[in-house]
Target: Nitrogen assimilation transcription factor nirA
Amino acid sequence: MSTPTTPKIIAKACNACRARKIRCDTGRPRCSTCAAQKRACVYVLEAPRKRPTLAQVEDLRSEVARLEALVAVLRTASPKERDACLQDTAPLARGQEAGAVTQSPPAGAVHANRRASETPATGRGSCAARDSSSQGSLPGRGLDGGGEGEDLAEDDLAEEPDLAPFVAVDEMGKPSSFGPSSALNQLPLGHPHHAGGEQVNDAVRNGLIANAALQRQQEPALAALPHIYGVPTDLALHLLDVHWSKEHHTFPLTYRPALIRDLTTHGPHCSEFLLYAIFARSSRLSDRLDVRDDPADPSTAGRRYFRRCDELLAEQGLLLSPSIPTVTALLLLGSTYNARGGTSRGWLFTGYALRMVFDLGLHLDPREGNHPPEEAEIRRRVFWSAFICDKLQSLYLGRPMTIHLRDAHVSHAFHDTFEEHELWRPQTGCGGGRGSGGGSGARGTVTGAPVLRRPTPIHSVSTFQQFCLLSRIMTQIINRFYVVGASSRNAKAALQEVDDALQSWKQRLPAELACSLPATTTPHTDTGLVATAAAATDQPYPPPNIMSLHAIFHSLVILLHRPFVSDGHLRQTTVPGASWQRCTAAARSITDIGLAYRAAHTLQAAPYILSYALYVACTIHVRNAAAEPRGRAREEQVVLLASSLQCLEELCRANPGVARPVSIIQRLMAIHGLDHTMEETADDAPSAVSLDLKAIYSTFPPNATTSDGGGGGGGWAFRGSNASSNLAPVRGNFVQPTRASEADYGNPARLERLDYFDFQDPLYGHMDGSLSLFFDLCDADFGLPNQG
Model:
């Protein structure tokens, strides 16, 4: 066994030479300098100073980041908010003065970040630092998670994560997304990581806005082109106008300045595949006959563009070479196929796009200066559009989402606000819809388009930012109440919190995004439909993107509360009265929005999200109408149902996939002996009526056991709920009724085919993976080809 050897001590300069900063020969017992000057030569052997570990460095970086975020919030906070933030940080400061060592984040920074994340940046005066920690949009304990076993708190994500390990940079300086466990991960080369709050540079914002204005001035020059990728220029520009004036203001998936510029220069942000995807999507909203393969058949609109997209996918191998234009095109095609009823192709195309989002690292927002301002703006818009499309598709099809909150680390502070204050003006040639200013001109004709009395600002950027925040709450609702394994125990604990988040979102909406509808409504006695008489007033209708935003909000209220009512999959043994009142009020609001949209813009070119909201409202109207006895109250409920159903039928033109939910509602009406037309209609508009919840409850199928459950008819009392202000109070405790007999339905033969619906709600049903939402139920019960 070898004896340990004493490590060799490396000699250092003596104290005298070190103080004078001269060379020392380290001679012993005295160096030559000290011997010549006849002074004492003293050597001090010290242990080498330890270098800080990587963990300590990262802790310090995180600390600096949190303090920078706090300072950014303090700059724009009110005096009251500033005092609260400083008061929260006082205990931490005292602990540090006493020598306390802590690695926990400052409380003030966390609270400030949470407040900042709940208030999106809008306009020139906003600070993106308010959005740098946008992971905690729900107040209190977050709810991201799947079934019972996953209780991931969103507060764990409120702190800005360190994204450096997830961004790999190759030798050419190109960033890519590989996690730290990947063998392909490389440390960033020469780019120190700064995870702090992003400081908005006014020069960057002004540069983006100026560039957008300059590019808009260049658009008329496109008319001089002989064709655009084989499409006649006049037709191509018309389809682009339809695209810019329709869903672009709800989902700014395409960045207009870069696409138009690169269309002529063949730059990286425009491709033939992307343009043909836009043409295919816009064709279904256009009245021009030259977009159809058969001028007499509207269903052939855009068919040639869909075929060309399939050819380009095969010829260019686009699925194997991810790029932002390809992601954008696949998302456009996926949502278009879903609206047309081609759910399999829509599901697959959207799935390809979402995989590319991760492959391109669009879900990361490291803010390291790797991307020019325009590139960063494009990446943010594409990511959040993909995030929203993912959640909406999950609602439409009842299938798992791909991007979870824990995967989303991208700010929704958009700096190009050029389109924010554009005016919403009439445009022809696109199904009677409306267009925004700045297009290259209206082409084609329109039949029966209503006249908008006064143009209104479109507010596209702030509307999209609010949609981003709402989609985060949408994710929580899906994860907690609709995934496989959702249980009543876990869902009840989250119900109040998510409801508070929805109400907080509504209260925080800027005034310009309020959905103020004309108040005068009159029913038609021949059809029972409600027509809005805004022509007699000077009040303008909100733009369609704002109407769609509010329609989705109200549908989320129903989706949140509906599972807890009777035959919902998280049902209780008694009717939670507050939940049903919230559902009824939300359904009425959706119908009002649908009718206003119909009066202002027509439904021939309305988006599919409005169809989904109206379908959700119909499932509530059916129950209310079936519960009312013959008389005025029943007529009022049937008017709401008939109006919503008529809107759905009109939406089938641009969205053929709406035919499926329409058939479901019609079958539910047949079960309960309802007719979608009224024999008689009251002279007044429908108004909120007292709800006999016992009668409504009798329309639901019974549970296996009969029990009062101790909940009472009032259910839970929700904070901030004003449903009871315009609805009668809930009366009494209700016991489960027995199953309705065949005689109750009037026609015994009706039960042979529709008996299944007496046990399953067509929207919510059992969440066991086999039945999710109306598409899956439609496939299973109607004998249609299963799309899964």
